[in-house]
């Protein structure tokens, strides 16, 4: 019986969908990821589903690991219950545990921003495990793998190198020493390019702020209260934003990405030299994107494309090379996709849809719409051409706005021209509003039917 393919699953933090050279940004240097895309399948309209706290990475990763919608992925979606939000829903299957039970040796290094019990249930081994959201990249509090699954706080210690190198080197050591018969599932979760954006000097020197073009949708400040203008991310730079400050933020961001790209290259070189490259499915993605001056915002606590669209590349044995998929996808589609690609039964609890038919050209359609949420403040729906964003006041009268935005993404990909107030588009607003409300109702969103906003 032929051995199942290995899995190398890499996920970054804050990597926006277009911040890869081959995905459209001609300033950032990402030769390794460009090469990976050329060897595999890239999904250019991939999305995350949002979340109910400013730490969007928690629900984004929960969806990936469970294959269910953002309100089911965690134990308790209540934004006031952070332990419940961080805990993967114990009533549904989990990605690493599914592969572990299917005979894979599951191994993790890097960021695990969910609960320790689900980590212990899912992985057979690991090194330099970070149970947190962010840290100084040169002083990451990590733990060794604990076969008892306890991971007490007192067992933490600081890693000895920059986070990207620390986690990459753990993956490299795993590949160099792996000698088991069973296939491996290697989960490599980076904290880059998340702030603090303090890339090593050689990479920081590659990007000079004066040479960084401002994004087309750069604004000094957001044009209205979106309900989250004072969250931590937005306080990383004073408002109104200035062109020089935003260019510096982008330069630092690109430096982090290029350093990340270089270290991914080292992991892939080891994968090849260890003899595993021809039998390994490689995934690269991220949890969410980042604004960095677009629409006057800095963070990811919004539903513009720069924050909810993320890169996705899948490469491996038998997969097409250089294929670009334009269909609307979600990152949580990876759960059933990897099951299909490895011949593992998809757990019955998984709601997401396999990307395998898109990969093999069996269809060009995947889903008609993608939707996302942010706290009790924002909801969005898009069919790829048209996009509607609905804004609410928190709790019915707090921060935020009673407002809609409508964008034609084909003609206005930077989401600059709000058409919601023009009478000729009232039908489009109504159609998208109905689709959004149907989706909200289907996932049990408390804001379904909450407000009938007139554009």
UniProtKB/TrEMBL annotation:
Residue ranges annotated for the Sulfatase N-terminal domain, each copy included: 5-344
Domain of life: Bacteria
Keywords assigned by UniProt, alphabetized: Calcium, Hydrolase, Metal-binding, Signal
Record's keyword annotation contains Ubl conjugation: no
InterPro entries the record matches: Alkaline_phosphatase_core_sf, Sulfatase, Sulfatase_N
Cofactors required: Ca(2+)
Record's keyword annotation contains Membrane: no
Assigned protein family: Belongs to the sulfatase family.
Protein name: Arylsulfatase A-like enzyme
């Amino acid at each position: 019986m032929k051995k199942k393919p290995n899995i190398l699953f890499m996920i970054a933090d804050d990597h926006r969908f277009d911040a890869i050279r081959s995905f459209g940004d001609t300033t950032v240097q990402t030769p390794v990821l460009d090469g990976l895309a050329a060897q595999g399948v890239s999904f250019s309209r991939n999305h995350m589903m949002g979340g109910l706290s400013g730490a969007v990475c928690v629900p984004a990763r929960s969806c990936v690991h469970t294959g269910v919608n953002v309100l089911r992925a965690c134990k308790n979606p209540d934004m006031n219950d952070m332990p419940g939000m961080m805990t993967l829903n114990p009533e549904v299957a989990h990605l690493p545990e599914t592969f572990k039970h299917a005979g894979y040796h599951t191994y993790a290094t890097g960021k695990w921003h969910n609960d320790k019990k689900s980590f212990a249930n899912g992985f057979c081994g690991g090194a330099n495990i970070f149970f947190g959201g962010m840290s100084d990249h040169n002083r990451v509090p990590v733990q060794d793998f604990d076969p008892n699954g306890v991971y007490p706080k007192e067992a933490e210690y600081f890693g000895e190198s920059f986070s990207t190198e620390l986690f990459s080197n753990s993956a490299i050591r795993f590949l160099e020493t792996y000698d088991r018969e069973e296939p491996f599932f290697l989960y490599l979760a980076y904290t880059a390019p998340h702030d603090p954006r303090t890339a090593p000097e050689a990479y920081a020197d590659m990007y000079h702020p004066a040479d960084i073009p401002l994004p087309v949708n750069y604004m000094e400040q957001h044009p209205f209260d979106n309900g989250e203008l004072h969250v931590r991310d937005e306080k990383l730079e004073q408002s109104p934003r200035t062109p020089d400050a935003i260019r510096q933020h982008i330069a630092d961001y690109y430096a982090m990405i290029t350093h990340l790209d270089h270290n991914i290259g080292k992991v892939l070189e080891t994968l090849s030299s260890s003899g595993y490259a021809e039998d390994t499915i490689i995934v690269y993605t991220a949890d969410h994107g980042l604004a960095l001056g677009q629409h006057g915002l800095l963070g990811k606590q919004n539903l513009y494309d720069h924050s909810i669209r993320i890169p996705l590349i899948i490469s491996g044995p038998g997969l097409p090379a250089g294929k670009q998929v334009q269909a609307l996808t979600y990152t949580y589609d990876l759960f059933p996709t990897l099951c299909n690609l490895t011949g593992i039964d998809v757990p019955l609890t998984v709601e997401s849809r396999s990307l395998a038919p898109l990969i093999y050209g069996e269809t060009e359609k995947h889903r008609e719409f993608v939707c996302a949420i942010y706290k009790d403040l924002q909801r969005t729906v898009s069919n790829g051409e048209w996009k509607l964003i609905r804004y609410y006041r928190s709790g019915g009268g707090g921060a935020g706005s009673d407002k809609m935005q409508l964008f034609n993404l084909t003609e206005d990909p930077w989401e600059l021209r709000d058409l919601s107030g023009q009478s000729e588009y009232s039908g489009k607003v109504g159609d998208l509003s109905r689709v959004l409300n149907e989706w909200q109702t289907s996932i049990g969103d408390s804001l379904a039917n909450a407000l009938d906003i007139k554009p």
